[in-house]
């Protein structure tokens, strides 16, 4: 007997008191409507990122009227990624859907995201193809960031910054995220064999207030991008990468050793230069050894963490699920 689908909708909230009641009504209409599989259960998890307006009071009032609403509240502002991570931790559904709390994401798109997951995907990312934001402050930086993220991570997603996404819960709960890494979830999941697709979604103009998470995150996003690249690539064969880092230092050490040992027309190096050459040879040789040792320690850390074994199991599980679907 097929169990009814259970959907958890996670919404980070920061000073969105005007939007919360309307968002709840739209989510209820979408998930109680005929477009979702029969018998679908759902919950709406509001994560209050230390709002200073009446957002928390309105969320609690809604929870008193509908037990499907759950509220998680932070004692201080931790940011959007931390809010999403808290929502993932508290989600009880088989499918986790994330969206913004400002009504720009359309809850009417959620049933279509769920249908894409049922076609065999693990992550369905929303694509705000007709984005309703300012050209220079929002859309142009977003285009540049998406191109850079695709180039570095190899994930072909048009709109990595769109919060409207659907995930299989068993996948998302195994991905620890922090800083500004929520936009890299497809790239992080792809390294373990997750099947990722994107779906064009409706993007609406902001009706109330202003954006709470703006361009100030650009530097943090850029640093997180390189962190994800390091984790995704170096963790496979860390000794190879650190070995490559050691080669230039070993080559410089060998070059100075050769120069110091050659008799250039019977002209010996003076004592001061000889001592300096010896110092440089030893210094660069030790640097080469240092990077090799880092590579060995990284290999030990990766083996001890069981990371490679989990990747093999993930690939086996994905292969079995693909054959059975």
What would the keywords be for this entry?
elongated; 7 strands; 325 residues; 51% helix; 11 helices; seven-stranded mixed sheet; alpha/beta
Order of helix and strand elements from N to C terminus: EHEHEHEHEHEHHEHHHH
- Tally of domains: 2
Strand content: 5-15%
Q: Percent of residues in helical segments? A: 40-55%
Query: Which of globular, elongated, flat, extended, rod-shaped describes the shape?
Result: elongated
The assigned CATH architecture of the largest domain is Alpha-Beta Complex
Number of strands: 7
> What's the CATH C level of the largest domain?
Alpha Beta
List the strand order in the largest sheet: 3-2-1-4-6-5-7
Distance between the termini: 16 Å
Mean pLDDT: 80
Q: What does the main sheet amount to?
A: 7 strands, mixed
- How large is the count of helical segments? 11
> Can you identify the CATH superfamily of the largest domain?
Spore Coat Polysaccharide Biosynthesis Protein SpsA, Chain A
Identify low-pLDDT runs. 308-325
The CATH topology of the largest domain: Spore Coat Polysaccharide Biosynthesis Protein SpsA, Chain A
- Based on helices, strands and strand pairing, what is the structural class? alpha/beta
| Radius of gyration using CA atoms only | 26 Å
Instruction: Give the assembly state of these chains.
Output: single chain
């Amino acid at each position: 007997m097929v169990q009814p689908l259970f959907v958890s909708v996670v919404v980070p909230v920061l000073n969105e008191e005007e939007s919360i009641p309307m968002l709840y009504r739209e989510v209820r209409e979408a998930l109680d409507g005929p477009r979702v599989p029969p018998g679908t259960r759902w919950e709406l998890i509001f994560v209050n990122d230390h709002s200073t307006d009446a957002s928390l009071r309105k969320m609690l009032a809604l929870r008193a009227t509908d037990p499907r609403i759950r509220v998680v509240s932070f004692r201080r502002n931790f940011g959007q990624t931390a809010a999403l991570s808290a929502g993932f931790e508290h989600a009880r559904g088989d499918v986790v859907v994330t969206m913004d709390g400002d009504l720009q994401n359309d809850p009417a798109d959620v049933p279509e995201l769920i249908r894409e997951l049922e076609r065999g995907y693990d992550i369905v990312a929303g694509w705000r193809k007709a984005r309703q934001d300012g050209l220079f402050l929002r859309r142009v930086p977003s285009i540049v960031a998406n191109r850079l993220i695709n180039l570095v991570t190899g994930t072909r997603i048009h709109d990595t910054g769109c919060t409207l996404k659907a995930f299989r819960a068993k996948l998302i709960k195994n991905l620890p995220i922090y800083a500004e890494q929520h936009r890299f979830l497809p790239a992080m999941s792809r390294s373990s064999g997750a099947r990722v697709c994107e779906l064009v979604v409706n993007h609406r103009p902001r009706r109330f207030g202003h954006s709470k998470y703006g361009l100030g995150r650009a530097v943090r996003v850029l640093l997180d991008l390189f962190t994800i690249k390091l984790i995704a690539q170096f963790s496979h064969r860390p000794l190879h990468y650190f070995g490559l880092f050691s080669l230039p230092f070993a080559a410089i050490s060998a070059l100075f050793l050769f120069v110091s040992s050659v008799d250039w027309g019977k002209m010996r190096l003076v004592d001061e230069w000889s001592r300096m050459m010896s110092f440089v040879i030893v210094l660069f040789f030790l640097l080469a050894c240092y990077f090799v040792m880092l590579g060995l320690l990284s290999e030990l850390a990766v083996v001890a963490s069981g990371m490679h074994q989990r990747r093999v199991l993930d690939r086996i599980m994905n292969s079995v699920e693909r054959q059975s679907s």
